[in-house]
Write a structure and sequence with these properties.
This protein has 192 residues and is α+β, with helices and mostly antiparallel strands. The chain is 30% helix and 24% strand. Strand 5 and strand 6 form a beta hairpin.
C-alpha cells in the first residue's frame, strides 16, 4: 500500500479547520462551499489572495480552503452542486451543511410529503441537529467531520471518510465534471 499524498494527509486537518471556522458563526446557517487549493501554488500564483487568507511561506504545506460565494444564488447547496465544475487548480472541494437527523425507529413515521416531513423532523423531540463538513480530493480521498448540537464541543467531533455518502458523492461529481453549457465553472478566488 502506498503512502498517502501530502494533500490527502492534510484533508483531515482542513476538514477540522473548516468546521471550526463555520462553528464561529453558530448554528442555523445555510450551507457553505470551499475550493481546496494547494497552499504552495496559492502563494506562488495568487499572493494577494494568500495574504487575505493569512497564508504565508511558513504555512505553505498542504491545502488552503477558499470559501465560495453561494448564498446570493438563491438555491440550496445540493442543487447548486449538481451544476458545478471546477478548474484544474482546484484539487478538492469541501462543503459544510446542517441537517436534522432522526433515530431509525422514527423513520417509518415520517410523512411522505416533503414539506410535512421537514416540519415533522424539525419538531420531533428525538431529533438531533448535526453539522457536516465533507471534503473530497481529485485523487479520490474523502473525509467527513460531524458535530452534534447536543455535544457542541471540539472534543466531540466525529470523523470518517464516508459518514455522509450522498454528500461525498455529490462533491466528487463536481470534480469529475467537465465544463459545458449546462455547468457553472466556479471561480475559486474570493470576491473582489
Amino acid at each position: 500500500m502506498s503512502e498517502p499524498t501530502a494533500q490527502a494527509s492534510s484533508l483531515l486537518d482542513v476538514a477540522v479547520e473548516v468546521e471550526r471556522y463555520v462553528q464561529e458563526a453558530g448554528w442555523d446557517r445555510p450551507g457553505r462551499l470551499f475550493a481546496l487549493v494547494p497552499t504552495a501554488e496559492l502563494l506562488e500564483k495568487e499572493p494577494d489572495i494568500a495574504g487575505e487568507l493569512g497564508v504565508h511561506a511558513n504555512t505553505a504545506e498542504g491545502l488552503t480552503p477558499v470559501e465560495q460565494d453561494i448564498e446570493d444564488k438563491g438555491r440550496p447547496l445540493e442543487e447548486l452542486l449538481a451544476r458545478i465544475a471546477w478548474p484544474p487548480a482546484v484539487v478538492g472541494v469541501m462543503a459544510a451543511v446542517e441537517r436534522v437527523v432522526l433515530p431509525p425507529e422514527v423513520e417509518g413515521h415520517v410523512p411522505d410529503e416533503p414539506e410535512r416531513a421537514v416540519a415533522f423532523a424539525a419538531t420531533h423531540p428525538a431529533r438531533e441537529d448535526v453539522r457536516i463538513v465533507a471534503g473530497v480530493l481529485r485523487s479520490g480521498e474523502a473525509h467527513c467531520v460531524l458535530r452534534l448540537r447536543s455535544h457542541d464541543s471540539d472534543d466531540d467531533l466525529m470523523h470518517g471518510y464516508d459518514l455522509v455518502p450522498g454528500l461525498v458523492a455529490a462533491l466528487r461529481e463536481t470534480l469529475e465534471r467537465e465544463d459545458d453549457e449546462d455547468v457553472e465553472a466556479e471561480d475559486w478566488g474570493p470576491d473582489e
